[in-house]
Amino acid sequence: MLRIGMLTSGGDCQALNAAMRGVVKGLVSKRDDVEIYGFQDGYKGLIYSNFKMLTSKDFSGILTLGGTILGTSRQPFKLMRVPDKDGIDKVEAMKHTYHKLNLDCLVILGGNGTHKSANMLREEGLNVVTLPKTIDNDLWGTDMTFGFQSAVDIATDTIDKIHTTATSHSRVFIVEVMGHKVGWVTLHAGIAGGADIILLPEMPYDINSVVDAIEKRGKAGKRFTIIAVAEGAISKEDAALSKKELKEKKAKKKYPSVAYELAEKIQEKTDKEVRITVPGHTQRGGSPCAYDRVLATRLGAEASRAILEGDFGCMVGTRNQEIIRVPLSEVAGKLKYVDPKASIIDEAKTIGISFGDE
Ligand code: F6P
Predict the structure, then answer these.
(1) Where does the Phosphofructokinase domain lie (predicted)?
(2) 119 assigned binding-site residue
């Protein structure tokens, strides 16, 4: 008997179901004695032993389905070793569930925080194989995470649609794109959607440079400017502050999000009408794009091979279009940022896109 526990943790994204389907199809094509324990709502299911027995049928017909059939939740890593309010030691509880069910391996699908916890479980002696999910694409050790391309498509579609109304009204539009502390989704959607200004957390912006870019467009006879701003973008001025100073500044003047702060600054310096669009969680919703379906299927298939070979303690990722296994110990706790010196930034600048950093 091969007993596999499976869970999805952290913010959901497209192609989680496609990835799990890949794992299960890969396993049952080689073994007819596979038992699958689907833990509900991420690590919570493992902690409180809340699971469903699943068969390969449960993974049929879900390739195109958004969300996760297992449910998910956020379990902050820093709280993992802190007993919950019922006094339950979460790490011991997870180990207990694993051993009680006599599991051979846990398949864990998640982003950064999830990988830290997965690595901790590996250190505690559990067999773990992970898959990189997140729209943010910020997971170290893989070129691409599934969910990213689908989110880029949705954010791009939002920027596309803004063009006509921005032109009609001769306005400055700010589209705020998800991505947590990194700018991958914004960078790609910004280029794909033809944004004029792209602001990323990795490249703190100077408001005067942003305003210059807007005015330059006006002088060139362009009726509108579209700014794609990452939700984690920061001005040069704020980036120079200490954590404490920044906290104090933010407490004095609260903005709903970065786009509102940016809009106010632009409004103070130009006579342009400024509008804000925030696609928000739509970027994580709906059916995965074709790219993500292929990626998630390939990653899932390779995860099944790793399990059948008994090669545990790894994340299955991609490098240069190839599927690879990366030791979890190398992945955990590291973020993958956009490199401001990357050629994609250079190419974008070459065609006149401003990053507000000059
Ligand atoms: O990590 C994925 C992500 O969508 C980020 O881009 C965003 O900052 C965050 O999750 C939103 O989290 P929540 O779903 O908890 O609001």
Answers:
(1) 3-306
(2) no
Q: Which of 253, 135, 268, 238 is nearest to 189 (CA)?
A: 135
pTM for the model stands at: 0.97
Phi (first) and psi of residue 105, to 5 degrees? -165, 150
> Does the fold of domain 151-284 match that of domain 2-147+288-331?
yes
223-267 pLDDT, tens digit each = 999 999 999 999 999 999 999 999 999 999 899 999 999 999 999
Give yes or no for residue 44 having a pLDDT over 90: yes
Cβ–Cβ < 8 Å for 113, 77: yes
Residues with CB under 6 A from ligand 1: 11, 111, 134-136, 178-180, 231, 284
Question: Reduced to 3 states, what is the DSSP secondary structure of residue 337?
Answer: coil
Is the predicted pLDDT of residue 86 greater than 90, yes or no? no
Q: Is the dihedral of CA 95, 98, 100, 104 positive or negative?
A: negative
What is the pLDDT at residue 358? Answer: 85
311 is catalytic: no
Displacement of CA 292 from its chain's centroid (Å):
13
Nearest CA to ligand 1 atom 6: 179
> Within a 10 A sphere around the Cβ of 310, how many other Cβ atoms?
9
Residue 85 pLDDT class (50, 70, 90 cuts)? confident
| 3 state SS of 321 | coil
- 8 A C-beta contact, residue 132 and residue 142: yes
Nearest CA to ligand 1 atom 2: 11
CA of 152 to the centre of ligand 1 (A): 14
Q: Which CATH class is domain 2-147+288-331?
A: alpha beta
ipTM of the prediction? 0.97
Residue-range domain boundaries for the chain: 2-147+288-331, 151-284
Tokens 């059948």 correspond to what residue?
308
Catalytic entry in 12, 89, 104, 136: 136
- What average pLDDT is seen over the chain? 97
Write the CATH number of the domain with boundaries 151-284.
Answer: 3.40.50.460
Give tens-digit pLDDT for 107-119: 999 999 999 999 9
196 annotated as a binding-site residue: no
